[in-house]
């Protein structure tokens, strides 16, 4: 099947053929970027996944509704990138593979196990995942599922280091995924860079864990000093052009851009900076990426979902252009 | 394929099987009621259709976004009706067949033609349509597409008779479908009942057309006097147990229930009355139904989409239980 | 000048003539009901007035923005009443005469004086006023301005009796206008009826004042028992077909219909009941009317402004059809 | 200490004394009804409690924010009931005792245990609790904490029977409290009445459990037939003037009144009916009450919090006037 | 008549004189900047025009409501510019001349014709227009109406080049005005500069058209590199101090500043940059200007209308200070 | 009592001890930063005060609701500053001392007197105040209450100089506090710096007053040129390391960050700049600070309250670390 055929949809009523992502943006049921939902992973290079879980939050819930609203907003996206003129759909078969299904939603460990199963299956099929959360607790089992032989590098854009310990009785909450991932050897802390950190904390524990493990932590103030270009140099140095994962928590952004999130912190990254950052990752051998913590109930203007979809489009271009080269083609 | 199989979905990643409409309501891409999108009309008894067009409005646009938001809200619906204990999914194969595709969106006649084609194709396959608008101008071509041998009866619930003439240069606007349908012989005005009419008008033209043609027009004040039971008696008398179509404009409802619509009129029907009305149609030989004029940009609380989805669920039960009996089984 | 000419507007650019209130509702600068703003009171039978003042509130301010948002919403209104088929614009020259101007806004007595001056001038010209508040404190100086020879009857629809005494240092606040008006002999308490009263109070003072003075107070619970028909009988009995004023505080309505108000009280009148109530006043010799306490900052759905405009339209029909017969014609 | 002193607050800066609940409603930090937060239960007859937990929801979370927003809205409440002229603060010492503290928030059983501890402690001090949820899962441990010698009667106002079984791995979710309470002997199903039930379900399990156990289940349709007076007769018969608990889930109300809730069902009880219902319980020997499922993130107009506070005020009057007579006085 | 008299308004009731734009900002019916609506173009130098049409959109409609909401927000504007200390009202007679009237709203060509007529009439009277859209399709007929002897220069600030071809059956949609204007010789592409372009596209057609015709296209990324000062240098070079038109599509702005628009693109111009840009145009011989694509239904915070009004105020200063010198004085 | 004990709270029901500001952020009644409300000023170093008054506005009211919503949002704040690692609660006893009580709310002078009394009492106890407005008119009486022997320096961040004269009959409105304070000798204009000034005005009076008195006025355009570092140098020079007060009007911020305010002006300071500005004040001998003009009714996203709380947290760090050294310890 040609790439062109992959994206064509035939109306079962009229027999007319359209490419949904090229049609009127208000039309049709929302899949991610109006990509097809396919019958099998065989025909798919990159999987768009929703992980509708927010049971790991420490404060305001709502991110379980993230995948659906990002899907909805993603119909505002189009195909050819205006800077690179690259069209991911011209070279990759990209499908919406649906959401992770949970048989147990009240038990954080069981949830993590089901997420792990899903991503492990994707890895076994050599399909690169681009995910929409869900709260940040989902990233630990995603990394676990994708793990192969050695720890990944990590580009982590967030207001919080998410390397905290046990909170209110569990270590699987959304402030802990990168401590869990480090402790489990899934990511290499020396090839981990955390960008946009800010906001008061009640203990310095997470900040200290990151530093103690050797992560490169760029607080917001250093971010402003370095500028995006400087930060990109640091990313390049830290990641060292080896396999890496990108995790983008929308609370890295200032709440004027992304109010719809559980733990907003005033004074964050602008979307212009965020887009520049992601574009600056071009060429890195990425193994997957996610956008998390879009919480639609707090997104009265809908802008957070739109921003989330835009970030996913940028990540999709990265994964399509330079994702790790073990894709079936 | 059994009915049960019809609704099952197998995850292409994990191979796990779920029935989406029975799973967590915040999960998955939104189809109408989380019904399957099928490959062919062969396997389908009732088609859920979106008609994302609002180019026929005379005032506030936005109903083009109706199908998507009703789909979204329809994930709040479940299967077994709490009054009748009837489960439409246990007896009918109900599919989301997507939205009508438009190749021309700026020409009201061309749009009407494309809608006609779609519904004509459904009729040729003996599939009953339940549609989400879109503005009310869509109902004229729908009726035209469904027409067989004789005019349908019509149960029309609305604040406006929608039997007006030319407006600002066109007769295909959303205030005119039932004048067009009457003039074209698609509906029988003597088997037409219009319910909930109210709100000042700049001319009496539409009101007079309806009466002159012999439609039974129940203004809101008479509605309150008759009560739902009295109105149902009138419907029964007018429709006469012969094939009929149901068209529900959400502006029939008071704007406290359905603010998200283009031409709200204060003092309308309550949702409790609306649900009673629809349940009272049980047993009528319906040929199709629609819910129109849900305009999400004016629906800040989201309640209009929820109400729209609930009305569609009630109509789905009616169509499943007693829709015209030429379905393939 | 004929009535028809009165409402015509000639475009100064193209010379084309339109009747604004018959044109597209989203077009043009908003006057009340898209009525003309005239050069002189000579050509005017009924004056639509805004009183943008909320300095008299005891709780949530915002009603100063009421006139503008009611004007905006009033473009949704049309001309011919659907029940009576009466068109006020066919018999009366109705103009938007603008807002009361305040030279002092921080001094409640000075404000009252400026409102008085405005309405006194209207009375001297035999023009009937229909006003949009502002908070309820405006009604006392309005009544004072309109007063002629004997106290008016009063139909007062509200959640509160507004017959309270001094609050936080002033007696001119929005909980007091009808005590002031009674004490000043502007209204006859025995020809006063208060409808829709409810909500806990910190003292019984206002309730007791109303009863002690002989006002007919219909609490919400009695309202539900009597029904609208019963309440109308009481109004008829109390007002006795002699000159009366109608004051409608939107907090009489349940906040599901009118959330945009300063002191909402759960469990109020429905808009259907309100419209029936106002229509039931047909034939009363009214000297003026107002709709007050629309507070747009609390009206996220915009429905309160729409309801306010609809109530004003009903009152306009009443004033046009049976307002006191000293109009110049 | 006299009741009057109980409610007085002395400003620590100026020494001025005020009664917060009598002062400007926009002033001060929000406690429930602006009641005092006291140092000891000794001085307290009725405890206002927040239970900020929503980990038991099956669909949309957010009710953890309910207690805070109900507190905020409760400053709109006043003291003397407009129907009964009863002032609960004149006879009872009513205090805001804060929220239940959770050391574990991700484990439903641990949460239930901490809620139990709190209410058990209240019971040991003979303090009657009036609670604001939180999702409905909180009511099972509340009932367990309050239990003394024999099962309570239950007046349960809700769209759902909440007698469902295990969901996604746990039986402690918000659709199950009354099955758990029945199975544990905390409530007597034959003295339980469930009012307002409606909305499609995916299985009939919960409905059937309620009926099988002998609960009196009044579906919405029977509610409309009986009217409030008829329902009150049923309540009276079922409860039999013996100790009972009242649990009010705001989704019993139509979403036009209470949009801010996790599982809205169109076609519900009006606030007028709800107020009449609660007032009709006057005289019952109540052991406590709660208002649950106010989910502020879905309450864009704020009306749900206002309604929640108003329902709590009505329940406070009931508890103050006729709560079980083992209060210390 | 002196300029001072031009802006004075005499209350027809009290005879008091005010200058509306100097009075309380919440007072009075909203005209643009509270300017007078005049009887004739004779007394007018600059015309403020609304063009309430959005039938040309390809995605989300709503801009037909733009003129009214910009009028509303424009009452927040005042007179003396804080940077230049220039007061446009001290030197020009500026009037709100109302909205373009449409006799046909469903036919894009007919609409364009009526817009053309309006602006042609303004040109014949030597009145400079400052317009509020409406969608961007209005600018083509505006330019056509204003055209005299040679093509205008164009400063076009937008996320999209709007030089696309036929879409869904028409070439008169809102993505095409500058292709139409170029093809018709109304603008000189070599004196056209497009600023702020960004966002993926489904074809490169529009971008390529602009470049092929010789327009100076500043994509967002170049904008950030050049900075506002650099962009202004480019504008100066391209426009060459000859007659030019300014068209500002609010989607040029980042949606955090202007969410209320039909096709938002993340990562846009800030309002600070926009104000600097416009101020940098001081001295250019402008023939008119517009602000388009303010779509109030998507503007939940109201900020887009406020920004739109502010941009119009800046443009008004430009037109008043250095608009083309054929004004009647 | 140790600092640690100061912040501990013992549950009166369970006896469990928590530190509210370290507990779940959605829990408990909202005080500022979840600080204790204390019995006496003896145990308090810094007082958090609400001044719920907006009777001094010239345009949109609503700031009376500011203190409550800032309290609500302040529960999102935590303890250890992420830049300085300073924890104000580790060195100061910080208490919420409630709101100023008003016995008269309609008389601006009487209000000012009551505010004066409150702050004078705080000064007499050597307690540093950090206040949440209310409109800006409150700052004049605050300064009057805090005054000791010589005029304070003033760091004033605002879109407006607030040095205007009489408006609509009063000089005590929110556009005048710093003219009143200068005229009364409470602040030293030569040690006053006004930052962020912008927006058209109807007279130049206020701008001219500030300059004539020798204040350092940094209009927004100079702000952009100097950058934060340059502005901080100016602040340092002007304040001269002597006692100063900080007054932050949230309308200094761009309305994309702070829409919820009465007189927004497009093109303002970003929150990143604002945080840098405040952090740059570290070490100044501050005598108090306020954040004013948060108007929740216009804050549909809630971001303004969040920003207000964040600014207060920064000011709290400043006051705790380097407030004037006459605190009792």
Task: Furnish the topology, listing elements before pairings.
The structure is a homohexamer of 329-residue chains.
Chain A: H1 3-7, E1 9-10, E2 17-18, E3 46-51, H2 66-74, E4 94-99, H3 108-124, E5 128-133, H4 139-146, E6 152-157, H5 177-183, E7 187-197, H6 205-213, E8 216-219, H7 220-239, E9 244-249, H8 271-279, E10 286-292, H9 303-322
Parallel strand pairs in A: 3-4, 3-5, 5-10, 6-7, 6-9, 7-8, 9-10
Antiparallel strand pairs in A: 1-2
Helix pairs in contact in A: 2-9, 3-4, 4-5, 8-9
Element pattern of chain A in H and E: HEEEHEHEHEHEHEHEHEH
> How are the strands of the largest sheet of chain A arranged?
4-3-5-10-9-6-7-8
Supply the CATH superfamily name of chain A. Ureohydrolase domain
Question: Looking at the chains present, what oligomeric state does this protein adopt?
Answer: homohexamer
Mean residue pLDDT of chain A? 96
Pfam families (chains A, B, C, D, E, F): Arginase (PF00491)
Cofactor (chains A, B, C, D, E, F): Mn(2+)
Protein name (chains A, B, C, D, E, F): Guanidinopropionase
Family (chains A, B, C, D, E, F): Belongs to the arginase family. Agmatinase subfamily.
């Amino acid at each position: 099947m040609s790439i062109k055929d992959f994206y064509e949809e035939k109306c079962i009523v009229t027999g007319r053929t359209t490419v949904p992502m090229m049609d009127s943006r208000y039309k049709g049921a929302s899949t991610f970027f109006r990509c097809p939902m396919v019958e099998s992973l065989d025909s798919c290079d990159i999987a768009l996944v929703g992980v509708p879980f927010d049971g790991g939050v420490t404060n305001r819930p709502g991110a379980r509704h993230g995948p659906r609203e990002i899907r909805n907003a993603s119909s505002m996206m189009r195909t050819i990138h205006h800077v690179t003129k690259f069209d991911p759909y011209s070279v990759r078969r990209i499908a919406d593979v649906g959401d992770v299904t949970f048989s147990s939603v009240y038990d954080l460990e069981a949830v993590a196990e089901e997420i792990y199963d899903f991503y492990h299956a994707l890895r076994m099929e050599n399909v690169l995942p681009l995910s929409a959360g869900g709260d940040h607790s989902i990233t630990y089992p995603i990394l676990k599922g994708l793990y192969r032989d050695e720890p990944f590098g990590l580009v982590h854009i967030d207001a919080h280091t998410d390397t905290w310990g046990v909170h209110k009785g569990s270590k699987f909450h959304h402030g802990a995924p990168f401590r869990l991932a480090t402790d489990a050897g899934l990511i290499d802390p020396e090839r981990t860079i955390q960008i946009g950190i800010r906001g008061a904390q009640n203990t310095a524990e997470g900040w200290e864990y990151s530093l103690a493990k050797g992560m490169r932590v760029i607080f917001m103030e250093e971010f402003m000093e370095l500028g995006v270009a400087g930060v990109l140099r640091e990313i390049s140095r830290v990641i060292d052009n080896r396999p890496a994962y990108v995790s983008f928590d929308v609370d890295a952004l200032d709440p004027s851009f992304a109010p719809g999130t559980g733990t907003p912190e005033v004074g964050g990254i602008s979307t212009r900076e965020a887009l520049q950052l992601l574009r600056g990752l071009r060429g890195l051998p990425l193994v997957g990426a996610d956008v998390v913590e879009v919480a639609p109930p707090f997104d009265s203007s809908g802008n957070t979902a739109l921003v989330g979809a835009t970030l996913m489009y940028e990540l999709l271009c990265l994964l399509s252009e330079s994702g790790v080269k073990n894709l079936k083609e």
